[in-house]
Design goal:
Layout: H1 2-9, E1 14-17, E2 22-26, H2 31-41, E3 50-53, H3 56-59, H4 68-77, E4 82-87, H5 94-97, E5 102-107, H6 111-120, E6 124-128, H7 140-147, E7 153-154, E8 167-170, E9 176-178
Parallel strand pairs: 1-7, 3-5, 4-8
Antiparallel strand pairs: 1-2, 2-6, 3-6, 4-5, 8-9
Helix pairs in contact: 1-6
């Protein structure tokens, strides 16, 4: 845990277990680390990335103020395996938003991911550990095989009980943008 937090704080990129798949993680305040994740995944910058946190309070500086009813809706799903697209705060790095005025955020229920974010006192970028168009890693071994020397650390450990990447919902409308996907499907 301490090594993973130190590497992220120093601008590194790690692989870690989440609720449903292994994820790539970095400091959302490090443009260089975000660029590394985009390069490792071969991910289109227009897709944006998810911020993962251990509580809503650490996500709030990244988000525009939300109506109390929207906050109540989020709290019904968190901590958990649902990611919400919320209005982004002014000045958020377009690498995170995909150039839009929204940002994908989640309060995780995974014990390691929660503890990592709590230790950093910050959200982390978290996106599935895979190259674009390939299935997300479901084990540390799969992640090492797929991403190997491109990351600074692969943290082993058990996944949560989810079957794949998180469901994504629009926070304002509660519309499902991406249903939770089984692990044998390719990342969209």
């Amino acid at each position: 845990m301490h090594r993973a937090a130190h590497l992220i704080a120093a601008g590194g990129v790690i692989v870690h277990p989440t609720e449903g798949v292994f994820g790539l993680a970095c400091d959302p305040g490090s443009p260089e680390a975000i660029d590394r994740i985009l390069e490792i995944k071969r991910r289109d910058r227009a897709k944006g990335l998810i911020l993962l946190a251990h509580n809503w309070e650490t996500l709030q500086p990244w988000c525009a103020p939300l109506d109390p009813g929207v906050c109540a809706r989020l709290s019904k799903h968190w901590p958990g395996h649902t990611t919400f697209i919320v209005p982004a705060a002014a000045g958020i790095d377009p690498r995170l938003t995909g150039g839009r005025d929204t940002l994908a955020v989640r309060v995780t229920a995974h014990p390691f991911s929660r503890a990592l974010c709590a230790q950093l006192k910050s959200p982390i970028v978290s996106t599935s550990a895979n190259r674009g168009g390939r299935p997300p890693a479901r084990s540390a071994r799969e992640a090492r095989r797929a991403l190997g020397g491109d990351v600074d650390l692969v943290v082993g450990g058990a996944l949560g009980t989810a079957v794949g990447p998180s469901e994504i919902r629009d926070a304002l409308s509660d519309r499902v943008v991406r249903a939770a996907t089984p692990t044998n499907t390719l990342e969209k």
